[in-house]
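At this stage, I wrote out one protein, both as residues and as discrete backbone shape codes, and that material follows here.
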Amino acid sequence: MSQTHQNAPTPPNEDEIDLRELVGTLLDYKYAIATITAAVTALGLLYAFVLATPVYEARAVAQMGYYMDGTSKRAFLKASEVAPEVELLLEIDREPDQPRTAWLERIGQLERTAYLEIVARSHTPGGAREQIGEVVQMVRAMEREQLDLAKEVRLEELQEMREEAATIRVQIAAIESALERARAAEPALVALFTVEQQNRERRLLSLERDQNKLERRIAAMEAFHPAAPIADWIQDSQSPVAPKKKLIVAVSLVAGGMLAIFGVFFWEFARSFSRYRQGR
């Protein structure tokens, strides 16, 4: 049997997209696409350079307050404890009806250290730095409150030690008097009074040592170093950090082009569908 089958051209698939037709459609509406893209980009430019309110930012790293206990630094507050309380206080103090010109953007402990990272923003140059100063003052007030409480407790302890030491001195004087009488009248009681006197003297010596330590600690508290920003770690932007003008313009340009192309294809689809319905 002779082979009669021959290669036949494959019929075109109506569902396939004709790239040349798409390109032709875009070229036919190139002026409309350019106009829509330019209009959206112009709106982006208007917002970025005219309508958007500039935002300035300041960053600071503050060392928590401390006092020297010998060669060690002692703090009353931890950076991790301060952050949530400061945020709460700022929210309470803020007037709800007044627009914010400066605000706290972020506050928190710096990488598990004794330092506090503060980031503030404002709509005016220098406003963010002032906000950081306000936060530092709040932290200092919190530290001062803790300092006063700690000093009050230490002073009470010191007063109790002094009163106990005074009582022991009176007891030692009484024992010495009794010891003198015992030597003359009752020699058997001398050893008993001597042991009691030695116990009281050891307790008095221990109290005096503890009293000296406590007095030094209180004196160290008086030389408390409050929280303060580290000068080398303060960054105050002189130019706005927002809005990001270049990014807004770029996004507007891309979005305008995509919107224009989508609109053209939708318009062509609507026209084709209308012609198809009229032809039925």
About this structure: The chain has six helices and seven strands.
